[in-house]
Structure formats: C-alpha cells, structure tokens
Design a protein that fits this description.
The chain has 15 helices and 13 strands. The mean pLDDT is 89. It is elongated, with a radius of gyration of 26 Å. The chain has 2 domains: 11-131, 2-Layer Sandwich (Ribosomal Protein S5, domain 2), CATH 3.30.230.80; 156-370, 3-Layer(aba) Sandwich (Rossmann fold), CATH 3.40.50. The protein has 372 residues and is of the alpha/beta class. It has a 5-stranded mixed β-sheet with strand order 1-2-5-3-4, with helices on one face. The protein has a 5-stranded mixed β-sheet with strand order 6-8-7-10-9. Strands 11-13-12 form a 3-stranded mixed β-sheet. The N and C termini lie far apart (75 Å). It has helices at 85-90, 92-114, 118-135, 138-141, 146-152, 166-172, 188-192, 198-202, 215-219, 246-258, 260-269, 299-307, 326-329, 337-351, 359-370; strands spanning 11-17, 23-29, 46-50, 53-56, 71-76, 156-157, 180-184, 208-210, 224-225, 228-232, 276-279, 288-291, 318-321.
Amino acid sequence: QISYDHEDPLAYTHNRVEGSTEYTQLLYVPAKAPMDLWNRDKKGGLKLYVKRVFIMDDAEALMPVYLRFVKGVIDSADLPLNVSRELLQESRDVKAIREGSTKRVLGMLESLAQSEDEAERNKYAAFWKDFGSVLKEGVGEDHANQERLVKLFRFASTHADEGVSLADYVGRMKEGQEAIYYVTADTLAAAKSSPQLEIFRKKGIEVLLLTDRVDEWMLSHVYEFDGKPLQSVAKGSVDLGALQDEAEKKLAEETATAFKPVLDRLKEALKDRAKDVRVTTRLVDSPACLVVDEGDISGHLARMLKQAGQTAPKSLPTLEVNAEHALVKRLDGSAQFDELAHILFDQAVLAEGGHLEDPAAYVKRVNALLTA
C-alpha cells in the first residue's frame, strides 16, 4: 500500500529506468492537497525500496521540496541495503534518481496542461488550483527546470479569471506591445479594481492579476518570458511605447507643465509621505494612485513582510495625480489645499489595499471637507 488516500490520483506515471542508475518508480499527484502542504519541513511522500526491500517511508532526498505533494514508490537497484538518510544526501545515484523523477513529474504535468483532451486539461486546472502556489517555489530552487516550470504557471488576468499561461498572454499581446504587464494584490477583487489598471483597460491591454502570497517572491526570479520582460503596472513610469500615440504623449507633457505649480505645492504638503508627486499617465477615472521606483519593493510586498513580523526596507512612494479629475482640479486655489492633499494620498493608499497609519486623522479631514 502506497498511501491511505481513498481517492484516485489526479495523475500518475509508472516506469523503469535503465542505464548508469537503475530504478523503478511509481509516482502520482493526489486528487486533493494535504492540510500540511505549506509546511516545507514536512517529511517527503516517497517510499524507498532497494532491490524490493523496504528502506524508509519518507525519502525526502528523492524529490525537490517544491514537489513535496508528489507521492509514490521508488525501487533502486544500485543503492546499498543499509543506506542511511545521511548517505542519501551525498549519493550520486540518489541525485540521478532525483533529477530523473523531477523531469518525469514535470513531463506528466506538461502532458495534462498541453493535452488536446478537455478532460485532461481540466485535470491540470484542478491540479493548479490546489498545488500551483507550491509549484511556483521551483523557479528559485530548480534553475535547471525553470523554463519548463514557468510554462506550467497559470494566472488570472483582465482577460480571464483563471487559467492564463504566459504563452497565452504573449499570443494576445497587441502589436507594438513590448512587455508582459502585471499587478500584485491581496485578492482578485482588489487586483481587478486597482487604479493602476485604468489606462490598460482603456487601451485593451491585458494585465496579469497576481494574488498568491508566493508571487512577489516568484517575480524576483522570473524576469522575462519569450523575450518579453515582466513589468509591474505599479512600478516606475508607464511607457506604453508604440501603444501611445504622439498626441497623447504631447498632451501629457503639456498637462504636466501647466500643472507644475500645483505639483510643487503637493510635494511640499506631502514631503514626509511621498518621494515625488507627478501627473499620471496611467489613471483615467481615479484621482490619484501610488507607485514605487523600479528598484523598490512594492506596497503589497511591504505589507506582507509587515504581516509576517519582518521589517520592510523603508522607501517612500510616488504620488501620481489625475489632472483631469474634479477633486484634483479643486486643489488649485483651495484654502484647504494641505487637507485635500493628505486626503488624496490616503485615498491612494486605501485604493491599493494599504492601511492608513492614522485612520482617525483621515476621517477628521473628510468630515471637515464635507461640512465646509
């Protein structure tokens, strides 16, 4: 008996490998994720036999940590019968088995994901729902298979709520589009309503919506796909290149110049909260949004680190304002300029899913504005 799982496996592979290292393996992906899936220190799910003699229940050295959900049996013809856990870590035969088993599992997943049979593709969709977040760990742990792993990843996007591969995205890119755009958020709803998406929606440009906690870490290892760089819509300045016509670029420059006196006052009012204030090129309906420089961590990652009890590197965001919005227009000549400036900033924090350092002060400012 391999396990006490009463459900049929989602997928399995059974084969015999011959050559410099000989072994037989039966590996499978369970139908449902175990309760301790996120415990990276849990014992492995593979049983090890040597020449059909049982050796151990949890031979974690035979499978990388990011494939810890894989169950099964491996019977080696080459390992000594008295093999210990310490020897497993150092054995060349074990390394060969591990590499071969990893490729076998990835091949099994690729067959499901790329199958012309809808039932098989549905199996992969079910697999991704339960195990996808763990599979993403592999891009930082298994550089030899990173390219294969990235092709297996699936995301939500402004085009579809699930099941979007990077190959799908690239295949739908608009003519002249140079980057794969994404936004990170705590939830799908928050990602969909992110103000940074507004210009992309207006122009019909697809944006990936990344909501797994592991995504920020994954992005530190995956920089491009098929020659297209991955670009956060909430970092740096938006340069849509050929997707933005010359008239739009000229209007943006003229607006920024005309709005400079207001920008200077905003910078002074928010000097302790914002690194810079500039006219936006990414907003359509919202009055303001926060962005960070390319080299800085995102607000989403900073919040995750804080929730985990870790210290996030201190960096101030840039406030981008929509010069066409009524609230922003109201700033010019307002006797309540500083109060409005802080309200704009606080709204931008809330819109990206952040938390206000002083909610009571925000409420007080809004109440004062409403009763003025």
